[in-house]
Amino acid sequence: MTSDLRDKNQLARLEAVVLPHLDAAYNLARWLTGKDHDAEDVVQEAYLRASQFFDGFHGVDGRAWLLTIVRNTCYTWLKKNRPHEPTVSFDDEQHSGSREDTAPEGLLMQGEDCRLVRETLEELPPEFREVIVLRELEGMSYKEVATIIGVPVGTVMSRLARGRERLQQCLTKRLIKEP
Amino acid sequence: MTCQEIQPLLYGYGDGELDLVRNLEIERHLQECAGCSKALERHQALRTTLTDPSIYHPAPAHLRERVRLSLRRQGKSPATFRATRWVGIAASVAFFAILGGTLAWALSKRPAEEMLAQEVISDHVRSLMANHLVDVPSSNQHKVKPWFNGLVNFSPEVKNLESKGFPLVGGRLDYLNNRTVAALVYKRREHVINVFLWPSATAEDSAPHVMQRQTYHLIHWNNAGLAHWVISDLNEPELQEFVQLFRE
Fold first, then answer.
1. Is residue B47 within 8 Å of A111, Cβ to Cβ?
2. Distance of CA B11 to the CA centre of its chain
3. Is B5 an 8 Å CB contact of chain A?
4. Whole-structure pTM over 0.95, yes or no?
5. pLDDT (tens digit, 9 = 90+) per residue, B96-155?
6. What is the DSSP letter of B152?
7. How far apart are the C-alpha atoms of A178 and B11, rounded to whole Å?
8. A-contacting residues in B 64-83 (Cβ below 8 Å)
9. Of the four listed, A117, B98, B104, B141, which is most buried by Cβ atoms within 10 Å?
């Protein structure tokens, strides 16, 4: 019976740490897998893993810890279920791309065109997409993002800058095309 | 600082993530540079767009319950969970040794089936303990069947056999064979019948196979891509009757 009580306490503590971040977990999984059903499966699996690793969690805020697990679960899942999709680690040096073009006058980004932004974000390579999701949608600091994806803060900063530039460039191109 | 030097730092500046010295330098530059100020405005506009609620995906309503149940099922730490199962197997080994080696024969013939049977027995026994029989208590199959949506990745066929003396008690999520499975609970007089269902690896249909282990009767078969395991301490003829009605 005492071991039952201990298990109940453990479960309550686990739930208190991980359940408040269910939206963040799902949002990240949804942006990485692209599908509702897949995101749900990944989230459930990530929570089970969190439960298994819970003994090793000594922090106060479980969000960064949980999202690290969610992210890893996503990529493991993607490698297994969508092997054709590229998830190779990104060489920041190599893909420095072209210099930023300042947008011509009249194409200043308005705040309204969310559909366009959403579509463009969906098509970004995962390395750019995930830092934008974690920073812009979850409001995490560069340091937190760096912890979650396991790179230096400087890398986070440059990936964010490049990701956002690509968002803006795609949008600029589309805005020109659309009537 | 020149525009070229400022440009890669502008996002970091807008995020408030730069150190004080660079912050001040950039601020000074922005006061004199329309181009960089314009760029910063674009950055802000993008940020604003990204805060639109249509871009964020909150968890669907049923996911919370699904995750909670899943955590509770694994609620005993995995080590404890496995230990319980092995204790169950050890107990039945002793029992059958007394019966003169029957288990040795059974294990050597169909080990996978035997392990699964022991798991089914464990789950059945655990379900009989207080407050653990059903997650959704209802004799209405139209309530029980949809309850499984989003909790398991298949749709179990649920029948109420009350008119034949096997009323439906409800449904429960359980854990067997390393996966979440659906459990349908029926009663015959005071005997509880558990029906476990899950998608089966071998898709081939098979005829019901009857087993007797300890004080339980187990009947299992595959049909339409689902594995079915029925267990009860009800006598064999009546349990066979139940299975026949269930399979119709």
1. no
2. 43
3. no
4. no
5. 455 544 554 455 557 888 889 998 998 898 888 767 788 889 999 999 999 998 888 888
6. B
7. 27
8. 64, 66-68, 70-72, 74-78, 80
9. A117
